[in-house]
Amino acid sequence: MTGPLQRRAIADGVWFSRIHDPKFYHNSISVTIITPLAEGKTSAAVLAAYLLRMGSRRCRDMTELECRLADLYGAVLDTDVSRHGENQLLTFSIAGADDRFALEGESISRGYAELLGEILLEPKVEGDAFPEEAFRLEQQYLIDTIEAEINDKRSYAAQRCTAEMGRGCRFALPRYGTVQETLSATPKEAYDRYRELIRTARIEIFFSGCGSPDYAEEVFTKLFDGVERAPLCPTPQRLPLRAERVTELAEQLPMSQSKLVLGFRTGLPQQRRVRTALRVMTALLGGSTGSRLFTNVRERLGCCYYCGARVNCLPAYCLLNAAWRRPTGSGCKAPSWPRSPTWLPGISPRRSFLTSSWRSKARSAPLGIAWPAPRAGISAGFCRGIPSRRSRIWRRSPPSPRKRWRPPRQRLHWILCSFCRP
User: Fold this and answer.
1) Terminal CA-to-CA distance of the chain, rounded, Å?
2) What single DSSP character describes residue 106?
3) CA pair distance 353, 335, nearest whole angstrom
4) Residue 277's Cα: distance from chain center in Å?
5) In the Cβ-directed half-sphere of 386, how many Cα atoms lie within 13 Å?
6) How far is CA 278 from CA 148, 261, 361, 406, in A?
7) How far is Cα 314 from Cα 86, in angstroms, rounded to an integer?
8) Can you say whether the dihedral through the CA atoms of 41, 44, 48, 50 is positive or negative?
9) Which of 216, 302, 314, 402 is least surrounded by CB atoms within 10 angstroms?
């Protein structure tokens, strides 16, 4: 049976969390450094995280590090960079077999914790900087990663929309930084940023698995006893409730599909019940294949390949995205997008971003879009294309070909009651 989550402080601004689950056969330890996004320092923090995974004082190169991992029965070491709201998260994790599978009865979990602590607090340095050769390799890798973000057009359009909505706020900064910022970084700047993070950032250590976390907690407690800590408590920045004007941004790219993102300011709900209602409203609007957007815009009208909505309560915004193939011929018509849509009460569109490979002829449309006109019978074709799969999920018999299929309202009523009842 899974045990409850236990969390306690082992140092100033350092927290150790544990959760025991006997159904697994391995353990996982992760260390997450949480710091506010800062312009001019984001790329240096990412470079420092990438350089830490290259080894430590005892493991001088990747060969020695791989041998150390092999001695721990093939443990897996990983590094990840993410963003949560206006914070940058640098995560170092290691996972491997439990202690009961050791051939000689040794403690494998203690070895995991010691290796992860070495990589985090005893990096391989040359003087007061990271090694030059390793830094240049990771610098080029980071540049390639930043330039490759445009390949995923869906996330690229969402990033551009949030950056435009939060211009001047921390959450609008990219998680990897920029190419210019990466090129201007030096090995000493990356090392100085690493030391600043170890001293001022909040650190979360998480142990999960079937083994005992006592060894890991003991190892990290001793490691952070000798570390000088002065954690910062930055004041969170809130997105304004209203924008001065509606911003419309378009970018022409050589692609066969068009991506549309609409950004709405929702305001930061303080009460838990209001936040739950906001999430339920987003789910009903565009959270699944039975939502209003998916049912009407995609299935009934056949205007796009996908459409959905998601909400982020920390910066307080809601994003609506859609994609469609560029129209050919004259079979397209321009919709009149309402400035205050009735299906989203209390929210008006504030930001929009469109990536397209064609120029719309309908210049009078509010967002400069041209929707492809639905072909004959397409409103029912999307539902009749997979009647057997839908029938197994929602109803016992396949839908009639003369009547458009609709999900039962009883299931929707149950979802609303389970989330909104007191």
Assistant:
1) 29
2) -
3) 17
4) 22
5) 7
6) 33, 19, 37, 24
7) 8
8) positive
9) 402
Q: Pick the closest to residue 85 from 319, 320, 315, 317 (CA basis).
A: 315
Q: What per-residue confidence (pLDDT) applies to 374?
A: 33
pLDDT at 1: 52
Q: Which amino acid is it at 161?
A: C
Q: What tokens does 417 get?
A: 């009651």
Going by C-beta distance under 8 Å and a sequence separation of 6 or more, which residues neighbour residue 116?
29, 31, 77, 92, 93, 94
Tokens describing residue 189: 């700047």
How far does Cα 113 stand from its chain's mean position?
Answer: 26
- Name residue 79's amino acid: T
The values of phi and psi at residue 72, to 5°, are -90, 35
d(CA 77, CA 111): 13
User: Consecutive 10-residue runs of the chain (422 residues): their mean pLDDT?
Assistant: 82 93 90 92 95 90 92 93 91 93 88 93 92 94 94 90 86 91 95 95 94 91 91 77 81 84 83 87 89 88 87 85 68 41 39 33 29 31 32 41 45 31 32
371-374 contacts: CB < 8 A, separation 24 or more?
371/301, 371/303, 371/324, 371/332, 371/333, 371/334, 371/335, 372/302, 372/303, 372/324, 372/325, 372/327, 372/331, 372/332, 373/331, 373/332, 373/333, 374/301, 374/302, 374/303
AA letter at 103: L
Q: Is the pTM of this model over 0.70?
A: yes
**Structure tokens that stand for 362 in this block:** 């309908």
The backbone torsions φ and ψ at residue 86, rounded to the nearest 5 degrees and listed phi first, read: -105, 15
Quick one: DSSP state of residue 295?
Answer: I
Helices (H), 214-357: 214-225, 272-286, 292-293
Burial class (CB in 10 A: 0-12, 13-18, 19+), 17: middle
CB 224 within 8 A of CB 37: no
* Helix/strand/coil for 143: helix
